[in-house]
Amino acid sequence: MRCLVYLTYCVAVSCALAVVQPLPNVQQAAPPAFCHDQECPKYSVTQSFTGYELRHYEESVWVATNLTTMEFTQNDSSEMFFKLFHYISGNNSKHVKIPMTTPVILKVEHGPGPTCESFFYDHFMVPFEFQDDPPVPTDPSVYITVLPPFDVYVKSFGGRPSFDEKMAMIESLVTEIADPSRFEERFYYFAGYDGPYTINHRHNEVWLVARH
Asked: In what order do the strands lie in the sheet with 204-209?
């Protein structure tokens, strides 16, 4: 599995990197259409560029699970997803069903080399009505976590991408930013906004956390 260190190297040796001019700041007035009337984390667009944008996310509460593996498979993805789905279906300390939110985000943190194990963290956002006192998961491999406010470079795309296709989008975003000092190299995120039965107008994102 390729590490982000390699992606940064690819940018460093690129022969022609375009200088991109930021566009005016755009505030989020309402949840975007790609949230499909589900709750999603609150953010504002602080800069827009050709092909990507910079967002500021507010603090939010999530339910998460994780695994460590050399190669991330579809079975791994499904197992993590259903652990979180069982939590919102009532496998929690209050035995309550919790509405689904969007996106499902997967944080990927690679080890130091191409043969390293990687760490994968899957997340559902806890609905706002539960964020002050979220039900405790009954599965010991599932936990509540808080994402503090952060800024993130975001590239959006459609379709039903494979893991390799998502990696290609990360590589594209790295190249477009064109400056490895502007983002975290140790980890990145994939964000998916659609259920498995959505066919048209699917929305996906890759995120690189901005450095300041």
From this structure: 43-49, 52-57, 150-157, 204-209, 187-192, 104-110, 118-125, 60-69, 142-147
191 secondary structure, DSSP code: E
User: What string of DSSP letters covers 37-54?
Assistant: TS----EEEEEEETTEEE
| Domain residue limits, the chain | 43-210
Which pTM does this prediction carry? Answer: 0.85
Query: 210: which DSSP letter?
Result: B
The whole-number pLDDT of residue 111 equals 82
Q: Which CATH number fits domain 43-210: 3.40.50.300, 3.20.80.10, 3.90.230.10, 1.10.540.10?
A: 3.20.80.10
Average pLDDT over residues 45-50: 97
Smallest CA-to-CA distance from 209 within 178, 190, 187, 192 is with 187
